[in-house]
Amino acid sequence: MARIPNEFTESLVLREDSRDTIYKDTSGYLTGGIGHKLIGEEKKIYKEGDTIPKSVSLQWFKDDYENAYKGAEIQAESLGISDENVINALGHINFQLGRSWRKKF
Asked: Can you tell me the distance from the alpha carbon of 19 to that of 86, in angstroms, rounded to the nearest whole number?
């Protein structure tokens, strides 16, 4: 994976809701930190209204943005695209909708 541009992560922070408690997003999913949708064991550990330790929130964000950007690189490569702006845009889509968004849309 290439170096993830600071512009990508900074723009995610600006666009995503950031909360230190667990809440339900507009789709009803338990969410916390910087736009992190709780999955698996996380839903057993954290309930709506719980406070999230800063270290956990930061790790979620790092894992999520790395996954989103890696997916963007794969998607861009499959399309023959190398433009960093397009890769960043795909990364945003992946962060918001998940890497399999193309199957839905």
From this structure: 28
The single-letter code of the amino acid at 26 is T
State the Cα–Cα distance between residues 35 and 66, nearest whole angstrom. 14
Structure tokens at 97: 């909708």
- Copy the structure tokens of residue 88: 């960043």
Q: How far apart are CA 102 and CA 85, in angstroms?
A: 19
Which residues lie below 8 Å from residue 61, measured CB to CB, with a gap of 6+?
12, 33, 34, 36
| Whether pTM exceeds 0.85 | yes
**Tens-digit pLDDT profile for residues 38-75:** 999 999 999 999 999 999 999 999 999 999 999 999 99
Task: Read off φ and ψ for residue 34, nearest 5 degrees.
Answer: -100, 85
Q: Are 98 and 75 in contact (CB under 8 A)?
A: no
Contact call for residues 95 and 64 (beta carbons, < 8 A)? yes
Per the CB < 8 A criterion, the answer to whether 40 and 20 are in contact is: no
